[in-house]
Amino acid sequence: MYSKTVMDHFRSPRNVGIIEDPDGKGEVGNPLCGDMMTIFLKVKDDYIDDIKFQTFGCGAAIAVSSMLTEMAKGKSIDDAKKITNKDVAEALEGLPKNKLHCSNLGADALQVAIKDYEAKKAGQPKEEPLRKDLPMHKHGEACYCPYCDTQLPEGESTCPNCQLNVTTTGA
Amino acid sequence: MDIVNLDHLSANPLLPEVKDAMINAIRADFGNPSSQHKLGDRASEALEKSRESVAQMINSESPKEVVFTSGGTESVNLAVKGVAWAKAEKGKHIVTSNIEHNAVLRSLRRLKMMDYKVTSVPVDSYGLVNPSDVAKAIKEDTVLVSIMHSNNEIGTIEPIEEIASITREKNVVFHVDAVDSVGVVPVDVQKLGVDLLSFASNPFYGPTGVGGLYVRRGTHLWPLLDGGVQESNRRAGTENLIGIIGMGVAAELAVKDMEGRTAHMKEMKETVLRELPNYIEHYIINGHPERSLPNLVSVSIKYIEGESLVLMLDDDNIAVSTRSACAAGALQASHVLLSIGRDFADAQGTLVITWGIENKKEDLFRFLKALREAVKTLREISPLYPKSAHA
């Protein structure tokens, strides 16, 4: 069901771990719903000098984290900001349709970590690690939970499957 | 490649005797059991012989009470919808439990679209239904109670006899989904006192695509499939004779070997439960400690997710099953695990380990060793694994 590249990154994930005193940290997802990802950044002269991740999730979620960190490592902050979910999924030679939300999680974790870095740099560090509620995504008229892909009842912002709040803005 | 199959829940291998019987049946060029000539007679004899074997396995009063179907799902659909439709004039209320298989739950969901009402009783932290909850849920217009014999995710065996005495007293039809019990543990429909009981052939090493429904004499139901008058007008369509012959042989062997198989299954279960703490920490065993299937252990492993675990164990040629939402096509958390009080995160890390008659103890140790490594690797990656939990 998974591509060779996904299985390779799942079996030998790159950049696993924690960076003590990171310059940026981003956490997305929720263990209550299945997937959770934390990205740690070490930044030197606005370039990503080191990046590490921790992930609680399925094979796709682990592979996404690994690929994402490989793609971001060594990039300038400006270039890293341009990495999208689609880029990560493509680099992994595609993901099954019901696992595409895992790539959203990865790219979002990186963007949150970069925001955390920028806030610290601007002298406005956040006390808590930055978190982000994921926006629901749309296929046609229907909206789906970003965490578990359950279709949301019209006008609802709480997922009936995992009971989590999702924001209504965004993709 | 030497694959250790600890996922008998998903598929059981066919017994050699079953394979032989089916191959011989293919070679025999049987006719249609409904035909009036000799070719038909031979087919009909083979069909009725299998029906007797199956009837003996579940101890039905007469083989006529056994209806052959295409498997557990069809049996359940036939029982639930067939009774609901046949009894619609008496009432449209059905009682079930929160941990039934989707075959039951989705049949009921369909019936709700036809103005039926459903009351679902809760289970305790072991997954046990309280019979008095069933008694309280039954109303004037209740036409059916459907409760499973054993749960396919956690193995808990429900108090069917107690519930049956309530439904008999209240004159309500009682269907039991016994797909994971029949041929695995003794199931005696007369002793249980049930009206309908669904089963499938594969759990006792017969072919997939074949199953049956026990229908106590006098229990009225509408067929799902309309057409010919096969199976006493309860299931139209020419019977899957080759599969049914396979199931008949598997049923005979299940009866003959039940004691030996059960002893082996129990020993395997004791071994897993005894050895697990020597291999991993931070887990919860799901299901009832005594009232449960001997061939299944459900374990929620904390801080990790089940699909990754299944993939890692597969790399070591070990097949197990997970209840993680990430591995389910619909990405939904298991309703069974949530019903017994597991939270979403623990449900995510749940493995179901099921063994069969061909498994040996060394298979379990191979699994346990691979599990220890996989859990260690995944916890190192996991942000949920607390520092205080590190050894």
Automatic annotation (TrEMBL), chain A:
InterPro entries according to UniProt: NIF_FeS_clus_asmbl_NifU-like (IPR017787), NIF_FeS_clus_asmbl_NifU_N (IPR002871)
Record GO terms (molecular function): iron ion binding; iron-sulfur cluster binding
Every NIF system FeS cluster assembly NifU N-terminal domain range: 1-122
One protein family per Pfam: NifU_N
Domain of life: Bacteria
GO terms (BP aspect): iron-sulfur cluster assembly
Protein name: Nitrogen-fixing NifU domain protein
Origin organism lineage: Bacteria, Pseudomonadati, Thermodesulfobacteriota, Desulfobacteria, Desulfobacterales
From TrEMBL, chain B:
Signal sequence annotation: none
Record's catalysed reaction(s): (sulfur carrier)-H + L-cysteine = (sulfur carrier)-SH + L-alanine
UniProt EC number: 2.8.1.7
Molecular function per GO: cysteine desulfurase activity; iron-sulfur cluster binding; metal ion binding
Function description: Catalyzes the removal of elemental sulfur atoms from cysteine to produce alanine. Seems to participate in the biosynthesis of the nitrogenase metalloclusters by providing the inorganic sulfur required for the Fe-S core formation.
Family of this protein: Belongs to the class-V pyridoxal-phosphate-dependent aminotransferase family. NifS/IscS subfamily.
Name the UniProt record assigns to this protein: cysteine desulfurase
